[in-house]
Amino acid sequence: MDDLLRRLRERKLVQWGLAYIAAGFAALQGVDIVAQRFGWPESIERGLIVAIVIGFFVTIVLAWYHGDRGAQRVSGAELLILALLLAVGGGFLWHLAQGSRENATSTADTAATTPGVSRLSQAPSAPPDEKSIAVLPFENLSEEKSNAYFAEGMQDEILTRLAQIGSLRVSSRTSTQQFASKPGDITEIARRLGVANVLEGSVAKAANRVHINVQLIRAADNTHLWAEIYDRTLDDIFGVQGEVSKAIADKLGAKLSGHEQEQLTAIPTHNEAAYDAWLRGLTSYYSGFQNEQYLKSVQAFREAVTADPNFAQAWAMLARVDGILYFFGVDRTQRHLDAINAALANAERLAPDLYETKAARAYYVYRVEENYAEAIKLFQALHAIRPSDTEALITLAFISARRGHIDVADDYIAQAVKLEPLNVRFYKLQAASLTYAHRPGEAIKILDRIQEIQPGERESIIWRGNAYLALGDFARAAEILDLSRLQHGESWEQDIELLRNQRNFAPAIAWLENAFGTEKIEPADAVDARVCLADLKHFAGDAAGAKAAYQQARDAASASIAEQKSNGPMKNTLALAEAGLGNANAALAALDSAAADLDKSGDVIEHGRDLDTRARVYAKLGRKDEAIDTLRQVLTAYYGGTTCTQTITTASLGLDPEFDGLRGDPRFQALAKSGPAATSTATAPRP
């Protein structure tokens, strides 16, 4: 041992090792600084670490053989030591390689089973832009909890103004809404959102006074960059959002153009009632995808423009939300169309250059005129104005899908996910696209990702139940959907669908009969629900009850169509009711009229839904050849389900009582045994 230690000293092995380690550490520190500044991928640093480790062992070996005394004859003990050094080094490198290989395999497996998720959903590895910010939900400190809309509206207002600044990247409301108003770990939240700064706030409203407290925090070191308290009366609140946004822009060094400066500090209204209604309208609009929320939003925006007829933003949002109700057939009367035209005209007269006005025009071309080619151009122009705003990207995805350009639509969604990796709405859209494309297994994996981001998110849980329904896995569907919720009306469409396919008709019939005229069924869904009830009674063998329900549905649909000439979805509902009554000519005429409305836009999603209805009508009428030929087309169509029935799939063909009359036909049996499967999309966010 003494001889070994003497040789180590002679060859200066320890000095060489320490010097090498110091140099390697310094090199790593330098590269880390450069990598952060230039956003280099982590793989570069990992590669450097591996190279330094290899070099260490090479250096030790060279130092042993070429120390101060030159090359030496090596003893058995020395050979043993060298072998141990090389073995340890080799084993360490082998471990690194195995870990990298396992990570790569895991990533590849995830990418193969969950398209878009593994490469898009991870938090950014590069440091966030210093001019990036997330506006967390404002805490409602009002004694009256009904004033929560005021805090939410203030957050929306500030977020919208910051999004107008081209040099800032602002995380959307949907991404930040999952976090608490006063989160514990600002640094971790900012890392997940991919931003460098966070704005916290609280709002307390009592009578006509408002207390607002905001603070801007640099997430990396939890430093408070700026804070302010605003005590205002309601008639002096209108400029606060602009003041806050301007202060944030200044603190983050965001350069403002003259137009941005003007937009940032503009006061949209000085009317207290109009402003209060505006905030209520925004809160309802962002609350979900249900007609009920849109109707509340429209009512609030109408109150706003009634109180202040010069409120341009409120006119623009009124035209936009009313357009949603028009597009989806909630109200296609001439009276409603005139109201939409008037709202848009007022917005364009008052503020033609306002971003919200331009957006209202783009949505009008999309949802009212249904001129998809022109709408694409308008939304591309909006995206050019605000490249970090994902709203235009998502709408471009919707329109592209409706034009049949599915790959283009998926690419737009992928771009949006890259900008906001924690926005669960985008993952819902990916899941919806997969279900439309008959890929429910992949959709389930996307929905699981939503639960990782936002545990307990209700809508994605319901969709997951839909996916298992489509796969014919009733046990999993029932476990997820939990039929006890049917008593409260939550996601009743999915529960009724499950009971229908289980052929457990009695509880479904009882629930529907008691739900009409209550808030459990939205007025816009009432006629479809009548057809659903009639079908259930027919399947249960109640011919008289089914006939009465079909007649009620027919009368209601006819009355609606008399006021709404171009309402294709309602004409399809009428066709189902007429077919249920055995009126073949009337049913087919309604189908043809609906198809004529559809041809004007060339909407492939609505075309798929039209085929779905046509197959069901043919089945009701006992026209087997047409039903089976149509089903062949349905199974490859890109579309979503309707109110009471999931998308037709190979699984539903074997389960849905609608098609019992076709089961003995070998052509039908062949369809039910092969082909793609799809999932229900009854509650998917509607593009």
Beta-strand fraction estimate: 5-15%
Helix fraction, binned, reads 55-70%
Overall geometry? globular
Report the C-alpha radius of gyration, rounded.
Answer: 31 Å
End-to-end gap: 78 Å
Secondary-structure-derived class:
mainly alpha
Alpha plus pi helix count: 32
Average predicted confidence as pLDDT: 79
Biggest sheet architecture: 6 strands, mixed
Total strands: the figure is: 6
Low-pLDDT runs: 35-42, 68-80, 82-88, 91-125, 674-687
Topology:
Layout: H1 2-11, H2 13-38, H3 42-65, H4 76-113, H5 117-120, E1 132-135, E2 139-140, H6 148-163, E3 169-170, H7 173-176, H8 186-193, E4 197-206, E5 209-218, E6 223-233, H9 240-251, H10 258-265, H11 272-285, H12 291-307, H13 312-327, H14 334-350, H15 355-367, H16 372-385, H17 391-402, H18 406-419, H19 424-436, H20 440-453, H21 458-470, H22 474-481, H23 492-501, H24 505-515, H25 526-539, H26 543-563, H27 568-580, H28 584-599, H29 604-621, H30 624-634, H31 650-653, H32 666-673
Parallel strand pairs: 1-3, 1-4, 2-4
Antiparallel strand pairs: 4-5, 5-6
Helix pairs in contact: 2-3, 3-4, 6-9, 6-11, 11-12, 12-13, 13-14, 13-15, 15-16, 16-17, 17-18, 18-19, 19-20, 20-21, 21-22, 24-25, 25-26, 25-27, 26-27, 27-28, 27-29, 28-29, 29-30
